[in-house]
Amino acid sequence: GRGDCRQSNSVLVESSSSPHSVVEPLTMEGSGLLQKLAVLAALCISACQAARDPNASPNFLVLFADDMGYGDLSVNGHPTIRTPNIDQLAHGGIKFTQWYSAFHVCSPSRAAMLTGRLPIRSGCAGSAWTGGVFGSSAVGGLPHNETTFAEALKTAGYATGMVGKWHLGQQTEFLPTNNGFDEYFGLPYSDDMGSSAWSHYNRSDRPPLPLLHNTTIIEQPTNLGTLTQRYAEYASDYIQRKKDEKFVLYMAFSHVHTPNFVSKEFCNTSSRGKFGDAAAEMDNAVGAIMKALDDAGVRNNTLTFFTSDNGPWLIQRLEGGSAGPFYEGKTTTWEGGVREPGIVNWPGTITPGRIAQQVVATYDIFPTMMKVMIQDKALDNS
Fold first, then answer.
1. Residue 363: which residues within 8 A CB-CB, separation 6 or more?
2. In a 3-state reduction of DSSP, which class is residue 252?
3. What average pLDDT does this structure show over 230-249?
4. How far are the Cα atoms of 36, 139, 231, 303, 316 from residue 263, in angstroms, in the given order?
5. How are beta strands 216-219 and 211-213 bridged, if at all?
6. Catalytic-role residue among 104, 167, 255, 257
7. CA atoms within 13 A of residue 47's CA, in its CB half-sphere
8. Which DSSP symbol is given to 35?
9. Taking the CB of residue 357, how many other CB atoms lie within 10 A of it?
10. Which DSSP string do the residues of 152-178 spell out, in sequence order?
11. What CA–CA distance (Å, rounded) separates 264 from 137?
């Protein structure tokens, strides 16, 4: 049965105007960032150099799903899940078929994406072979000597905002606003790490799930039934407020991590069950955020990334997702644990409808931002 829906408190990236049809591979020699840029940066740069104002830097939008497998998008062939807005991002840009997460669980993969470094270098890999995450009682977090893309972009005059799941330390000193983000709205960790109408705990280390604005708890327990809508509304408002500035927005969805909470609007709407409902709600939020870019008149000057932190949580059975044709999922280093959907979109700069088979990873997002951004001084974060 469906159950109830409880409501809770080197293929190319060409520029559309570029005469170039070949992207030369980058050499991996040397120690500086400019010498060690990943394929993702090379592809995006090959597109943008001929198409955009050489004196202008784009905005950046990172759309980050939680526990989404390679096979969980309709654009990747799922037979019953429908994700039209994410599909449109892929059709309008580049879909990467060999995009990898840096790790197979949440915290290490997020640390890698934010810093451009392997999780073991930042001390966030965990001590077990399955990795480790920062729980609701964690005393540590992302080390202060790590540089996030928010911190790097902030030095170049960017406004920096984050919405959604953080999961790199819930103590005040480790929250997003102490890691380069000007403002933050979201959950400090996974949606199942605190009590809500969707998850019940009677444990001192699992207090009611808090919703934060910057460093202040504004709701506890969090009403998960309206959370995704509020994520989208905050992100859309942020875009409108910052449309006349250069900005980076990191939108880290709580979907499709268990429990598969949804609003009334999406309850029992997918033949894939509650997981499909959650995927549809996230897709709708992606559509709302992309519309906000259009309404603000900044869509063509915004480089957008979409991917996930790790593969599907298969032990959750129907509550978890699908790795498609790949073996295993979250908590394993098999292909299904780290191979993710990967989409890059930049209207007017990246030719739509491209499919790239080059191997890229989430930690390539950081150097791509740094290289695409016009900046006199390169940050060596290798």
1. 38, 102, 112, 113, 115, 116, 117, 118
2. strand
3. 97
4. 44, 33, 13, 29, 21
5. antiparallel
6. 167
7. 26
8. G
9. 9
10. HHHTTT-EEEEEE---S--SGGGSGGG
11. 32
Q: Which of 3, 74, 63 is nearest to 321 (CA)?
A: 74
d(CA 100, CA 314): 18
Q: Does the structure show a pLDDT above 90 at 200?
A: no
Chain CA centroid to CA 91, Å: 19
CA–CA dist 215, 221 (Å, integer)? 16
Q: Of 48, 106, 124, 267, which residue is the catalytic one? A: 106
**Token pair for 347:** 């209207």
Report the pLDDT averaged over residues 239-259. Answer: 96
Sign of the alpha-carbon torsion through 314, 286, 230, 238: positive
Model pLDDT, residue 40: 67
Name the H helices within 202-357.
Answer: 227-241, 274-296, 335-338
- pLDDT at residue number 361: 94
Higher pLDDT, 228 or 33: 228
pLDDT-based confidence at residue 46 (cuts at 50, 70, 90): low
**Chain centroid, CA 45 distance in Å:** 21
Look at the chain and count its residues: 382
Dist CA 199 CA 8 (whole Å):
10
Q: How many Cβ atoms are within 10 Å of 77's Cβ, its own excluded? A: 12
Grade residue 17 by pLDDT with cuts at 50, 70 and 90: very low
188-193: average pLDDT? 89
Question: In the annotation, is 106 catalytic?
Answer: yes
